[in-house]
Amino acid sequence: MIVTIKGSDPVNMDLFTDDEEKDIIQNILCIIKTTQGSCPNLREYGLDPEAMHKPVPVAKAAYSVAISNQFRMFEDRATLQSITFEDDPNHPEILNPILEVTIP
């Protein structure tokens, strides 16, 4: 099943879910909303904020690579198909990824 996950989606945490699809989506949202280095004992989890200070095309490329790496390390139950970014004309500095993900 292919699922679309937007970085602008809220994370509605359910720590005791029996729904694997919901668990995977929650994990992915947490990965893309977490600043790398902010989790004690798991400093490599999340996205590096340094990419935000680069030109937008460079930042998009850096975030795409980072998201792909995070999938391999922290959510291997899903397969990342594509990454695009929502453009907000009012806030062009904010990168909101849109992920196409295959969940078995």
Molecular structure report:
The protein has 104 residues and is α+β, with helices and mostly antiparallel strands. It has a single domain, classed as Nuclear Transport Factor 2, Chain: A (Roll), CATH 3.10.450. It is built from two helices and three strands; from the N terminus they run βααββ. It has a three-stranded antiparallel sheet, covered by helices on one side. The radius of gyration is 14 Å and the shape is globular. The mean pLDDT is 90.
Helix segment tally: 2
Q: Report the CATH topology name.
A: Nuclear Transport Factor 2, Chain: A
Residue runs with pLDDT of under 50 for 5 or more positions = none
Main CATH class:
Alpha Beta
Radius of gyration: 14 Å
Q: Name the strands of the widest sheet in spatial order.
A: 1-3-2
Distance between the termini: 6 Å
The main pleated sheet reads as: 3 strands, antiparallel
Give me the strand/helix succession: EHHEE
The CATH architecture term is Roll
- Overall domain count: 1
Summary keywords:
104 residues, alpha+beta, 3-stranded antiparallel sheet, globular, Nuclear Transport Factor 2, Chain: A
In short:
The protein has two helices and three strands, in the order βααββ. It is α+β, with helices and mostly antiparallel strands. The longest helix is centred in the middle third of the chain and has 19 residues, at 56-74.
List the helices and strands and how they pair.
Elements: E1 2-6, H1 20-33, H2 56-74, E2 79-86, E3 96-102
Antiparallel strand pairs: 1-3, 2-3
Helix pairs in contact: 1-2
